[in-house]
Design brief:
Layout lengths: L1 E5 L3 H12 L3 E5 L3 H10 L2 E2 L3 H6 L6 E4 L5 H11 L7 E4 L5 H12 L4 E8 L4 H4 L2 E5 L2 H6 L1 H7 L5 E5 L3 H29 L6 H7 L9 H12 L15 H11 L5 H13 L5 H14 L7
Helix pairs in contact: 9-12, 9-13, 10-11
């Protein structure tokens, strides 16, 4: 199939590579012309602008947007909407809030343009392992573009999960679960690292991949990281979040679903970004006031 592809970052360029290897014809565009040159070297057709990209596609056109969620995606979708025609399709493969998907789907439908939200999981390993795709949107449009989805995904790794927004909703919950899994591994390995036994945690992480009930892709990646740097000395303890954990927690509140694991995991990330936080200083101050307990100067 022919597909326009906007966004050639770490994931985007790998996705284009996988699609080209699968025999699809890709017209690629990125704000950085260097990335476009790279894509052309892999076999894609390069575009110098969104207008140029659209002009190279045959109707009905399909354009995959793989740029950072938020304003970058919003402005790209709006620009494409002014260039595309009725019957064309825009696919958003980023981590968009599902509320935005529902709004965009309605707005684009008024122009006769179909909008598909594709929750995409696989990270930088997707090129070789494939991308798990959770897709939402019009059923007929998804069926027409299924060859694209099936090429990107591993066997049984693609599913249309519902209407507009459903794909990113499922991906949002997926990422909320991921937060909890990561936190559990982090806490367990910290205990192993601090205990009195001299345990080789890098070897334990590999051991647990052999038939253990806690084996997973995340654990395999943990083993890789520990093999490269057993003490993780090259890293700072600063952990970002990209929004999906917050959105999942908000949905838990909306539907009265208790989510203590996600809550603790998300708040731990918040705390990781603070140095000598006020809350901890307040605790020290209160203990010192009521009990004369020892304190340390900043």
């Amino acid at each position: 199939m022919q597909l326009g592809f906007v966004g050639l970052g770490k994931m985007g360029l790998n996705m284009v590579t996988r699609l080209l290897r699968g025999g699809h014809k890709i017209v690629a565009y990125n704000r950085s012309s260097e990335s476009v040159v790279h894509a052309v070297g892999l076999g894609a057709s390069g575009a110098s602008s969104l207008q140029d990209l659209v002009s190279q596609l045959s109707a009905p056109r399909a354009v995959w947007v793989m740029v950072p969620a938020g304003q970058a995606t919003e402005s790209t979708v709006k620009a494409l909407a002014d260039l595309l025609s009725p019957g064309d399709t825009i696919i958003d493969g980023g981590n968009t809030n599902f509320h935005d998907d529902v709004r965009r789907s309605t707005e684009l439908a008024s122009k006769g343009i179909t909008y598909i939200d594709a929750g995409t999981s696989g990270g930088i390993w997707g090129l070789t392992e494939g991308y798990c795709l959770m897709v939402g949107g019009d059923e007929a449009a998804c069926s027409r573009l299924e060859p694209i989805f099936l090429t990107l995904a591993p066997a049984n790794g693609y599913m249309r999960v519902g209407g507009a927004g459903a794909g990113h909703y499922v991906k949002m919950v997926h990422n909320g679960i991921e937060y909890g899994l990561m936190q559990a591994y982090a806490e367990g390995f910290e205990l192993l690292q601090k205990c009195d036994y001299k345990i080789d945690i890098a070897k334990v992480s590999s051991l647990w991949m052999q038939g253990s009930v806690v084996r997973s892709w995340l654990l395999e990646l943990t083993a890789r990281a520990l093999a490269e740097d057993p003490g993780l000395s090259a890293l700072g303890g600063y952990v970002e979040d990209s929004g999906e954990g917050r959105w999942t927690l908000q949905e838990g509140i909306q539907y009265a679903v208790p989510m203590p694991v996600l809550t603790a995991s998300l708040f731990t990330r918040f705390r990781s970004r603070e140095e000598n936080p006020f809350g901890e200083r307040m605790l020290a101050a209160m203990r010192h006031q009521f009990g004369g307990h020892a304190v340390k100067s900043a």
